[in-house]
Design goal:
Strands 3-2-1-4-5 form a five-stranded mixed beta sheet, sandwiched between helices. The chain has a five-stranded mixed beta sheet with strand order 8-7-6-9-10. Helix 2 links the parallel strand 4 and strand 5. The radius of gyration is 17 Å and the shape is globular. It contains six helices and ten strands. The longest helix has 18 residues.
Length: 208
């Protein structure tokens, strides 16, 4: 089985090709505003670099958020079109789990993404990566209150938070693929972003 992993939920493109035994190739590229323009190009180039046909992919794993609204949509669109056009099975995973999985520490993992206005996207996973707190859009103070009842935990993020000691997120893409490759397959048309937070337009409509 050959797996294609795609995560564009941040300023970075994280993508990889692997089989059940090893990683063929991976890319961790900060694209920022060039994400929409360059993501598909970089993914396609990855196949060329390892001389693997794009038709050889057996399953696609795509990160469906949380994170950047625009970034997440880019990866989802690439993955959905690829899966539909090539008739390839597709499944999803979330960015917070990927952050937790990339840590090898035997402790509680607390991945964080800055959601602004004193909120974060966060989850809490135990040392075996099982959910203690499901991925949530939550006040940082509320998260800290939940953590006050726990001990031996680490924060993982690419963002900075005042007064928090953060371990930088460096994706272990093979580990993420291995952990999520057997997730339930989804109809490509049913694959959608999981923002956890309403968009500005949705919030305005709700408050009108």
């Amino acid at each position: 089985m050959i797996y294609l992993y795609i995560d564009t939920s941040s300023d970075y493109l994280y993508t990889a090709l692997s089989n059940d035994n090893a990683l063929f190739c991976e890319k961790k590229i900060k694209l920022e505003t060039n994400l929409s323009k360059d993501a598909l190009f970089e993914i396609t180039k990855m196949f060329e670099e390892v001389n693997i046909s794009k038709d050889s992919v057996d399953k696609i794993i795509v990160c469906n958020g949380p994170g950047s609204f625009t970034g997440t949509r880019i990866g989802i669109t690439i993955a959905k079109v690829w899966a539909w056009s090539k008739k390839v099975p597709i499944t999803t995973t979330n960015s917070l789990l990927g952050m937790a999985l990339s840590s090898s520490k035997k402790c509680i993992h607390v991945p964080l993404i800055d959601a602004r206005r004193d909120h974060v996207y966060a989850a809490i996973y135990d040392s075996e990566y099982q959910e203690i707190l499901k991925p949530s859009h939550i006040l940082l103070t509320e998260l800290m209150d939940k953590l006050s009842k726990l001990s031996d935990y680490e924060f993982i993020s690419n963002d900075e938070f005042e007064d928090l000691e953060i371990n930088l997120y460096n994706p272990d893409l093979f580990k993420i693929i291995e952990f999520t490759k057997n997730n339930k397959e989804i109809n490509p048309h049913a694959v959608n972003p999981e923002y956890l937070k309403l968009t500005a337009a949705e919030e305005k409509k709700l408050n009108d």
